[in-house]
Each structure stands twice: as C-alpha cells, then as structure tokens.
Here is the input.
Amino acid sequence: MTLNPLSNPKGVKLLCELCQKPAFVQCTICRVTYYCGVEHQKADWLGIHEKICDNLALLRQPAPFLPSEGEREKREAVLLDKKRQMIDLTRTTGQKLLFEGKHEQAVPAAMQSLRFAIDVYGLSSIELVPSYLILGEASIGLGRLSQAEEYLAQGQWTVLKTPECSNAIKSKLYRNLGLLHAAKGEYDEALRNLADDIYHASVEFGTDDIRTSGGYFHMANVFFRQGKMEIADSLYRQVTDIWYNHLDSIVKCRTKTPETPKGMFYKMFCFLDEAQEAEAVQVLNSIYDIREHQPNRKAPDLALICHALAMLYFIFHQVKKAKEFGRKAVVTSDSNPDENFSRKIVEFMKICDNVK
Amino acid sequence: MAAILPPIVGQRTHVNQPPATEYVQQKSIPPIKGGVFKLQPVNKPQGKADRELMNKRVKLRAEQPLLTKTHTQKYRNTYIHNLSLDMLAAGFHLSFKELFSLINQQEADRQRAGPESVMWTQVMIIDEEEKLDMLQKYLTEAETAERKGEFEKVYNARYELAVYFEDSGDKWLSDHFYTTCLSTSTNVKSDGGRLQAEGERNVGLALEKSGRYFEAAEHFELYYNLSCNHDDWMKDDVTFHRDACINLYHINSVIGQELQDSDPEQSLEFLLKAFNKAKESCDRQLEGEAAYELGLAYERNGDGETALLHLNHFLETCKRAEDDEGIGRACDAIAKAYSRKGEVKESIHYLQQFVETAERSKKETELSKACHNLGNLYNKLGKYEEAAEYFSKAYNISRSLGETVSINTNRVQYGISMAHRMMAGFGAHLVDISQPSIERIVDWKSSRTDEFDKPFPEPSKSSAFFRSLDY
Here is the structure.
C-alpha cells in the first residue's frame, strides 16, 4: 500500500524499516511496517518479515488504555516475553540464512534481532553481541570487510568490557574474527583467532561437540588455502567424525524410540535446530566435494562422509537422497577392511528401506 | 484522487542499485536510541607542572615497545590458554584434544575424590608449566609423525613423555602415555610386533606398580606370546623372551602370594605358572626362588611330598650357586617339612646343616634362628641337654645382636629347656624319700643351684635314723 509522507499526521515520521529514509510503502498485512520502496519491502519480506509479520502488529501498536496497574504490568510482561522470543527467532533465521550462503537476506533478520535486543537489554549489554556477529558475518560474506570489522570490533569491545561473558559468545566472536582475517588473506591472524574459538568452545561444550566443529572446519579451510593439505585433511577428518557421531546418535535415538509420543523426538539430543541443520548441510557437503576431488583420497574418509550425509538426509526425511549416499558409502567401503563400519552402513540401509 | 507526487530526489538513484547492498552501506550501525555521542576534547594541561607531567608520561610511553595483539593476549590469558592457542594455530588439534581431555579428566577425578582426599591438595597439571611445555613439545612431535604415518616416531615421542612423567613421579600421566604407546605400537607392522611387545611390557609394568596384578598378568602374557619366536630382539643384553619370562614369574608369584589366604588352590596354580616361567627363563636363581615359593605353598596345603621335592630343588640350585643364605633358608624349610611329617631325624639333619652354613657364612641372625629351631626340636624329642645347649647358643647370639624380641623368646626357651633338663633329677629326688634328697630339694629352693645330677653321698647315719623311724 502506498503512502505519501506529506499526508502523514503531524509530528509522525514514517521511516523505512531497512534504511531509515522516509517511507512510501506500507506492509498491508501488519500495517505497522513501512518501506522506502518495493525493493526494500521485498528484501525484508524474504529476509525476516515473513516470519515476524504477525507478531510485529502486537508489538508496535500503541498501548491501549488499561485502567488497572496489574493489567498494565501484565501487558508489559507479555510484551517482554514476546520480544525475547523474537530475538531468538530472528537470530536463528539469520544464522540459518548465513549457513545457506544467503548473506543479503540475513542482514534484515540480524538488524531486526539487534533492534529487539537493544530494546530489551539496553545498549551496552552482552546480549547484543550475537546480533553484531551475524551482521559481521553477513558483511564478510558480502565482501564488505571494513564494515564487518566495525561490527566485530563493536562486539569484541563489549565482550572485553564484560569479564563474565560466556565462553559460547567468545567462541562465536573469535570465529567471526577468524573468518574476517581469512577473508582479508591474513591467514596467521585468522588461525590464531580460530584457535581461540576452538579453545573457548571446548571449554564450554567439550572438544567433540558439533558446536566446536565449526571452528575446526574454518581452520581446515584456512590450512587448505595455505596449501597445508596434511593438516587440513586431519582437521576435515575431525569435523567429519564429530558430525558422524552426532548424526549417528540422532538416528539411533529416532529409530529406537517408539513412534507414538511425537514430543519425544524433540529432546535435546534428538534434534537439530534450523541453524544447525543448515550448518550440517553446508559443512558436510563441502567436505564431500573436497574429498571427491582429492587425487590421493583415502577410501574410508570418503565412505565416512557419505554415510554422514546419508544420515543427515535421513533425518530430513529425504529417504531417496539418503539411500543414494548410503549406496555410495557402501561402494567406497567395499575395499575397506573395517568390518564394523560396513556392518553399520548395511544396518542403516535396512532402516532406510523400512521407512518409505 | 490527486496525482501521485514525483518521488523525492535521490530515490531514483537507488532504484537502479541492488536494494539490499545499499542500506548496509549507508548505515554501518543501526539506529541507536538516545542520540549521537560526541567525543569530548581532551583536557589540555593548564599549569607548568601539569605540562611537565604530561611530557614525562608521553616520553615514558614512547620508551615502551608497541605490543601486538598476540602480546596482549599473552598477558591477558592463562598459561594453558596461550599454550592451546599456539598448538591449535599450528594445526595440532589432536594434541590439543588430548591435553584438554587429560586436564578435564584430572579435574573430574579430583572432584569425585572430594575435598577430604589427597588429590584435593595435589598440584594439577594445569598449573605446572614445565610439564605442560613437555606435553606440548612431544605431543606435537607425535602428531606431526602421525600425519606422515611414521608410527615409530609417534611411539618414541609418547614413550619419552611416559618416561619423563614416570621420573617426575606423576604415575597417572605416565600410565596414560604407556597405554597410548601400546595402542600406537599396534599400527607398526614393519618390525614384526617388536614395538608392540615393548608396549605390552611397559603397560604391564605400570599396572603391576599400581597393584592391578591380574590385568598386568594379561599384558605380560601378550608380551610373552609376541616375543616367543624372536630370540634376536634384545634390550640391555637381555632377550625380550627372557625378560617376558622373568616378568611373568614376578607377576604370577605376586598373585600367588596375594591369594595365599583367600584361595590356596588358585594360589598354587599361579605359583606353578611362575615356576614354569622361571624355568623357561633359564635363570637358575630365579628358578630356585620359584621352587622355594612353590614348595612353601605345597607345604601350607599339606602336600609334604611335593613340597620336599621343590625345596630340595631349591637347595640344589643354592648349593650350585654357593648361596649360603639360600641354603640356609632351604634347610630351614626342609627341616620344617620333615618335622611336620614326623621324620625328626631328617629334620635334625637339615637343621644342623642350616647351623653349619650359618656359622660358615657368619650370618648371626640366621645362626640364632637355626639354633633356636634346633633347640625346639630337641626339646620336643626330650633331649633336653642338647636343647639347652642350642638355646643358650641362640640366646647368646641374640644378646650380642641386641634384638629385644629374639632375646626374650630365646631367654624363655632357654629357661624352659633348662627346667626340663632339671625335671628328671628333681622328680627322682621327690620320689626318693631320703634325707639327702629332701635336703637337696630344700637347698635348691633356697639357692636355685642345679645339683640334682650329682650322685648321692653315702647313706649316713642320719638317713638310717630316718629309715628306722619309718618302720
């Protein structure tokens, strides 16, 4: 719906959601979001607005007149809760888009999450850092390094000022700094930052967690670009192992629990959130590509990554693709003397056949 | 409706550009509530003193070197953090993983042990920089070698670590590295299992030291199997095969001793195994030793015949090696075995041999023991003369040695044997109701001199007087 800035009520300036310029378009669904043009509206819709449109109406409406103190407090609490949910949702969306390589689309989501976070926690809170990190990562992906540096510097400063900041946030920060340096071509600095990432993630989650594996993966990429194939190879193997074990436990958990209680599937360890799913797809596929184009690859490595991918697609209920990778794993592991592994694949294929 | 107003100037320019790229460029940081922060100008120093102070500060700052990020990190982070960063940045992620899990495990063990335990106050590896440095050095070395597939080098690096920690008294870590040594060595195929054998041996020794004898025995068993057909494997002039035998003998005999009280049957089995391994090692002395233990065990189980067989074997080996101490022990044990069987003569024979060897080798303690035993035996036989003689010998020796316990026992025994010896005379005197005998008993009562052996004086008148009173 088009708007004219001149016809706005006096004192009200309607600004574009993305660039903060005078708005000419209004979202017809929620009626509380404005854009400078159709392009921005479209970008925002694809990025995040589609998911939060319904909720925004509630959050942005002017407060209705509530006569009692209790009711006002209640409404405050509801809004705060809603905002917290929004932060989580927008962040996960942003992260997911990043893993899918859609850096541009991730920006609106990250901006939105930052806005909510500032609203809830204030300006200098540590809670803002994840949003800065997503923005930073998106900027790196878009090739705007100086801007990325700005975001990350902001994040780092906040972290430095907050000594009790959790290791998870530190690890993410260092991961992004590492990526930034890698994009700039400063590999040594990148490695040091990624090392910091792995250290913090290990302290928080342990060395064999999927949340630590990201650091290993990026580090492997840096070594790969430096031409240190041996190190990169061993790091890729580590990443594959971590994902393999994790997916294996998920598959086991799903196939063993009886089908009846649906809610059971959403236990912590039976479940990947959207960002993790996207990360798994990205990481495993790129490792698979590398392994396939390696001239001197080892059969067990390829078999392992194929099996891991097969399990991943099985979890996504894409049985056809899962079977395809499963077959590949069987073929590559034919020459493999490891009995245990072959048996595992065969078992997995049986499960695939049973599902349909 | 009014005509649509022309778009504001500038709007058209960004229509042509990709929209999403633009808003990020324009706004690097999203809008911040509360307006723009302005930088305040630095307060300029007012007076002369202020200016001087400022100049001084600037000068001092100029003298300090500029620090890079790495330097500041070094200062800010803990030692282990920096160490991990160095390792990871060089790509040694497996080393990092191992170190990390070691540290975590130690901490977990400590927490489990609780604040009451010894572990609570122990210095953790995380605080020992020297050890951490060693770990870093050799772990990275091992990882480099492992990447190239040179497992022998991996083994050597890990072995170094194990030895280092063993020397510095950190048993837990050295055990860990011995175990990883073993798992590495299984990858080395080129030398026919030599490294694996070494690994098994080290793990076995480590387990033996921590008192897990049965597991240790298993590892030694594997070590033995690996080294069985390779007589050319040497270390310090000892073939692996022989070393394996010796180790197996030790562990089996230890297990045998452990089980002695709880399960004599099994204990015997283990001792027999030990004996066989000792035999195989071609070490006479060891074989003898094993035979001795086996003999003792048989005797405890009441199988005197077999015990004697083995003990005699031990005696022979000792004689051949001219080991006086061993001969003594052998004679002692054999004598005991005979005495239990009731063949006192044999027993005495061996004990006398024991005494002889002890005298010859000037082993005072042994001699005292031998004399004591011999005395006991004579005592039992009723030959109190000899018993008293030997007990007095034993008593004198132990008195010269100054061992309170043996002095006391010998003193008592000596006393008993003397009393026994006196008993016959005393009894005779008591039965014989004549005046001199009674007088003599009374004398003895007052002065405690043993004169019962002396012949009676010629019957005198007084005794005749007594006799006449009787009738």
